Amino acid sequence: MTENNGQHFSWARVIVVLLHFNSLPIMSVVPYKDKNEGKKQQVAEMFNNISPKYDFLNHLLSLGIDIQWRKKAVKLLKKDQPKLILDIATGTGDFAIEALALKPEKIIGVDISEGMLAEGKKKMKKKKLEHIIDLQLGDSEKLLFEDNKFDAVIVSFGVRNFENLEKGLSDMYRVLKPGGKTVIVEFSKPRAFPMKQLYNFYFTYILPQIGKVVSKDTSAYTYLPESVQVFPDGKDFLSVLEKVGFKQTVCKPLTFGISSIYVGVK
User: Annotated pathway, please (predicted)?
Assistant: First the structure.
């Protein structure tokens, strides 16, 4: 077979080019396309910007369903009765507060956003929970805790924001006690008609506009659907959990696949 210019056509050359293209690293989705900082720094800045309105927007944009998702996730730890819980990417502490239903002795929440933690600490003070929920500034991918410390590690809509997903999950695995469990709630992508189409329309056109009006940060709510699209959800995420060491992994889809609960055991 020859090309139009008479040169010999090589399928081998095409295959090599395709393999090279497929091996190129996928660009990380970041909130602010015009800035040079890494994803971690940009995510911290984004959450600092939207922190005063975060709780209001979070419940508004999910129509309050996110509260039920967290309740379902917490119930998966009921039989484990964890006494010391780590809440990663704790934000303003909603998941930590929900986890009080497990009657733990202590919950430590970690987040990279000072703004979110400030809002969370106000909440804990108002609810008089400071003695049991301790919110700390920290990097979820470089946890400042010893190995085998926590009975359970929980994350609510946070792993999608990791700069290095495997590194973050590996550190979660490290700080868990043997036999300890992680429970992760994260957005996923509906596959079935018509939810897939409705979901994509809402995330692409409606959510950014509401976010822009309320939070004044357009990038934050265009970043959200973009980050969901590139996130390895479902079986792909279970594969990553298993790669870093987790066993007995399970994915439980929520509300037509809009979100999922992931479980793994060390």
Answer: Quinol/quinone metabolism; menaquinone biosynthesis; menaquinol from 1,4-dihydroxy-2-naphthoate: step 2/2
